[in-house]
Design a protein that fits this description.
Helix content of chain A: 25-40%
Oligomer: homotetramer
Number of strands of chain A: 4
CATH topology of chain A: Alpha-Beta Plaits
Largest sheet of chain A: 4 strands, antiparallel
Structural class of chain A: alpha+beta
Distance between the termini of chain A: 27 Å
Order of helices and strands of chain A: EHEEHEH
Strand content of chain A: 25-35%
Number of domains of chain A: 1
CATH architecture of chain A: 2-Layer Sandwich
Largest interface: A-D, 30 and 30 residues
Strand order of the largest sheet of chain A: 2-3-1-4
Chain lengths: 100, 100, 100, 100
């Protein structure tokens, strides 16, 4: 099943800087080979449901192994059968053609 | 990996009443056999990551098969290694012992 | 404008226990006098938009004043004009009459 | 209070195309004059809490006036006192300097 997801991982590390952990989480999404787009409050990712949620599991497991005791993640997940729409199409729908 | 998740499925059906679809989604979560708690803006579910996300995939697939062209779901996902905490513990932590 | 919201406050405190901060946040919502329902991953609240978002601002301000350096909150917000539906109605729609 | 928010408005219109409504919602955020960044699953916005949540109220009110019977919005909201960080800083923290 093809989906578009948006994933925001909040590691509770005992420090207020979570840069290293957020970079690692983003890299695991990039490593899926799927189309990803980082923004200031999460990462868009487009592709197969199973691939995306295997990557998300890996994020939680790796960060815990690296010493993060607690993680709170927010995910938006969209699927549709009426047309095939990717990240680029969604942006174009709002901003207009050639807008990026 | 044990997690607590909170799942809010919004079916875009072409009607404003989405009661039947939300009931079906909730039932699929109940059918996992995991501990679930319905509230006014989603369902808490506690248990194995793979079981929960297999159920969520089933929700999207079944609703699409039943004619829903578009679904937008929001998921909160928590995992922790510092202690074993379930739905009941989280409520007790805020409301105090025996509060339910 | 009447809305139903669901608010999940994640304080990044430098400790993994955030019980005190989450209790304080919940109490500020209770103090609005609006109908609230605590669950394992947030609090449902039903009432006037301005009252709810004034309370949410107060939560962020008070927790920062109490020493929390960083807060990440997730909010689900619903409004509708086709009928007047509260927290109790939403539960009944899924679980059936008299189900609570 | 300065915050970074990420806002995803899902109008339940009775059609599956919600392009016009999502464009209008995005335009209301742009009209605040604050820094905004559209992505495939929402809009980042950075600035004063009161300005952002007045705009969000306007989005719900305008869409309802335009005939949308039901709206479900998801908001991520971050505030911090340890440093002043905007949308550009958050991206740079993950992607590295000059990465955009």
């Amino acid at each position: 099943m093809k989906v578009i997801a948006d994933i925001c991982v909040v590691p509770l590390t005992g420090k207020t800087s979570v840069r290293a952990e957020v970079k690692r989480a983003h890299q695991i999404l990039v490593d899926t080979g799927l189309t990803v787009h980082l923004h200031a409050y999460g990462t868009n990712i487009e592709g197969d449901y199973d691939v995306i949620f295997a990557a998300l599991k890996k994020i939680h497991e790796e960060l815990h192994r690296a010493g993060v005791p607690r993680i709170s993640t927010n995910i938006r997940l969209g699927s549709r059968t009426d047309k095939d729409q990717g990240i680029a199409d969604k942006l174009e729908a709002v901003l207009g053609k050639g807008s990026r």
